[in-house]
Write a structure and sequence with these properties.
703 residues; Rossmann fold; 2 domains; 8-stranded mixed beta sheet; 33% strand
Length: 703
């Protein structure tokens, strides 16, 4: 059997075996989920919360429920014909060498590499013309591969390194300090670190951020006050000084030292949008922290400095962002001067080799312009094609830079760039068992409910027949100013190469068209996001890429909310729903971990009566109705997800299982020793996709 026909034949086999009218649905006996008597009152409205007990991630009762649900789920999945064949194909395509761009640090050049199926990427290093050697191998951090490597930060001379690790996918980290030359541990491990970078000041110490250890469960208890610390080498962690955040209550605080070790730049915010900006001159005697921006009405951060001259990226008075310059001695916004003014496209700049690289997003794809530090355009950089570009960042003294290029049919390919000449040279092209020439992506613009034009990129095999019977995954996010740009996925390659359609809609709430686009999908405009996604599905059906019987909708985190809301509002629109690590209880999301910081996008049920009623009207947990036939649903989450706690998914699955009408299955797949997604071992990722694809195909049927 040719690989290129695999999914198509599999779908025929599955529909023949299992999907005729006389087909009997696979019988499922769901675990009994007890209902409690908890009732909350919001603005004189009583809201029952019968599954509140599932929020207790430390209880034996919750643990037993998880085990019972997983047993039902995996018993169902293992009975699906050819599930193992899908897994094997995924594993085969996944098995190729993946290498990152190199970075020069001291005497060595460092790069990440995965031989193919290693659970975690390995950090290598080599001297010029030397043989690469393993520097850090996260695969040896734990037996099951669930401990991953996070931030890695070197001193300027490359002699010392501090790196963070995550255990079982948690956002809580540990920081380990070693001598980079000998690889020997220097001192005690720094523990209980969360949402943090690592930024060295000379070779004396480094800055990091964290919360006080919460009372109750560290995986779900509220963490509200972020602090910036300085760790001085040779001292104990208990002696670490709080630099910012002790007196100021901020949910997110970050600090970074400029390349010349002159300034500490501090950002502080109460939500995921808008930040204060501070600066500390580390060469001054009093080391006073000076305020640059004293409000949360815009996003601003420093990308570089030249002496006392700061270069700041901001969307203050510029929804698509601009780059300004100002002297550090008096850096208030009224003194800012444009270096690169706002354009009609959103800018995301980097710096390296003495230049600024303005990566503009043109309808969700990249265009890169190179400028000098006076704002003079040097050139537009010729890219390998239409897609997404990342990189062009490095130290001032770097003679060469690197960037990666990818799109939905092109695996990430690395290029070496000469800033002086503008020449690009292929550096690393992966050898993947996937013929990119057989596929194409098409960007279309469809009309949403209120008349807004929304871009969507549809990827498929060339020569596809538009007969309404193509198995299709529609993916979306639509929130937090995050943009979905073309990106190659090994898993999606398996879906595509055998007749599957993959569509990505750039919904409002994202950042594809700047702050205006973001604000068009927040708070009491959140329904716009759902309407945009529904309109995307209707377009795919109208144009006969697919039909409701062959359509699956998928999204994770805020995208999990998107799937949950759309499947409860329009349950007949799709055949399969795949909400992953979703924010699904909109009345209580802000009570867990750092969830209150998402209020800029969502608002909270405590704000006012109108906001409560708006949230209640679309909250997936609160809009599952008895007697409605919902699509075949596979909810996925991780038991160590401390960003979007798994209780969201637990409650949603319990509601659906209780109230579902018809034969469509409602299953929840709970990955153990896993978090929100980052650092998930390759082996677990392959298993997850095999289960998702097998479940999706099995539940698509012919009329």
């Amino acid at each position: 059997m040719k690989v290129t026909n695999y999914l198509y034949i599999l779908l025929i086999v599955l529909t023949t075996i299992s999907c005729k009218k006389e087909k009997k649905a696979m019988k499922i006996s769901y675990p009994e989920t007890k209902k409690g008597t908890v009732v909350d009152t919001y603005f004189n409205t009583k809201i029952p919360d019968p599954y509140r007990w599932l929020e207790d991630d430390r209880s034996a009762e919750t643990e037993n429920w998880v085990k019972a649900e997983n047993k039902v789920t995996f018993d169902y999945l293992k009975k699906i014909p050819n599930r193992e064949s899908i897994r094997q194909r995924l594993e085969k395509v996944w098995n190729y060498e993946k290498v990152s761009s190199p970075k020069k640090r001291g005497k060595y050049t460092y790069f990440y590499k995965n031989d193919g199926l290693q659970n975690q990427y390995v950090l290598y290093r080599q001297k010029e013309k030397g043989t690469p050697e393993i520097f850090l191998d996260p695969n040896k951090f734990s037996k099951d591969g669930t401990t991953s490597l996070g931030a890695v930060s070197f001193t300027k001379d490359g002699n010392l390194v501090a790196y963070s690790i995550s255990e079982a996918g948690s956002d809580w980290r540990k920081i380990i300090i070693i001598d980079a030359l000998t690889k020997k541990i220097k001192e005690d491990t720094i523990i209980d670190v969360k949402f943090s970078g690592i930024s060295w000041y000379k070779n004396e110490g480094f800055y990091y951020s964290s919360y006080d250890k919460p009372k109750g469960s560290e995986l779900s208890a509220k963490t509200d006050q972020h602090k910036l610390y300085y760790h001085k080498l040779g001292t104990k962690q208990v002696e670490d000084k709080v630099i910012f955040g002790e007196k100021q209550k901020r949910r997110y605080v970050g600090g970074g030292v400029t390349e010349d070790n002159r300034y500490l730049i501090i950002t502080a915010s109460k939500s995921t949008s808008g930040n204060e900006l501070y600066i500390q001159d580390l060469e001054s005697e009093n080391k006073e922290i000076i305020t640059i921006v004293d409000n949360f009405e815009s996003d601003s951060y420093v990308i570089d400095n030249r002496g006392s001259k700061l270069y700041i990226v901001t969307n203050f008075k510029a929804p698509n962002k601009r780059i300004v310059t100002v002297d550090a001695s008096n850096a208030k916004p009224k003194k800012w001067k444009d270096v690169i003014p706002e354009a009609k496209e959103v800018i995301s700049p980097t710096t390296g080799s003495g230049y600024i690289y303005a990566n503009y997003m043109v309808d969700a794809t990249s265009k890169v312009l190179q400028y000098d530090y006076e704002g003079k355009l040097i050139r537009e950089i010729k890219l390998p094609g239409i897609g997404s570009v990342g990189g062009f960042n490095g130290k001032t003294e770097d003679k060469d830079l690197y960037y990666s290029f990818t799109n939905y049919t092109t695996p990430a390919t690395i290029y070496k760039y000469e800033p002086k000449t503008g020449k690009s040279k292929l550096y690393k092209k992966p050898k993947v068992d996937f013929n990119t020439d057989e596929f194409e992506s098409k960007q279309i613009f469809y009309t949403s409910k209120d008349g807004t034009k929304i871009p969507m990129i549809i990827t498929y095999k060339k020569g596809i027949e538009l007969n309404g019977k193509n198995p299709t995954i529609l993916y979306g996010y639509g929130g937090f100013n995050i943009s979905l740009t073309p990106n190659f996925s090994i898993a999606n390659a398996v879906w595509l190469e055998n007749g599957g359609v993959y569509a990505v809609a750039n919904l409002r709430g994202g950042g594809e068209y700047g702050k205006v686009w973001h604000k068009g999908g927040i708070k009491q405009k959140k329904q716009n996001v759902f309407d945009d996604f529904i309109a995307a599905a209707e377009y795919l059906i109208k144009e006969k890429y697919t039909s409701s019987d062959y359509l699956a909708i998928r999204g994770g985190s805020n995208g999990g909310l998107l799937v949950g809301a759309v499947m409860t509002q329009r349950p007949k629109l799709m055949k399969v729903a795949l909400p992953a690590v979703g924010v699904l209880d909109m009345l209580r999301y802000h009570t867990f971990t750092a969830g209150a910081g998402w209020a800029y996008d969502y608002g909270t049920s405590e704000d006012n009566k109108k906001m409560f009623e708006y949230l209640k009207a679309y909250s997936p947990v609160h809009n599952v109705k008895t007697g409605v036939e919902y699509p075949a649903t596979l909810v996925t989450t991780g038991d160590h997800d401390d960003r979007v706690v798994p209780a969201h998914s637990f409650k949603f699955a319990a509601e659906l299982q209780e109230k579902q009408a018809g034969d469509n299955p409602v299953l929840i797949r709970i990955e153990t020793n896993a978090g929100h997604g980052a650092g998930t071992p390759t082996s677990k990722t392959i298993e997850q996709y095999a289960d998702i694809f097998a479940f999706t195909l099995y539940n698509m049927k012919e009329k």
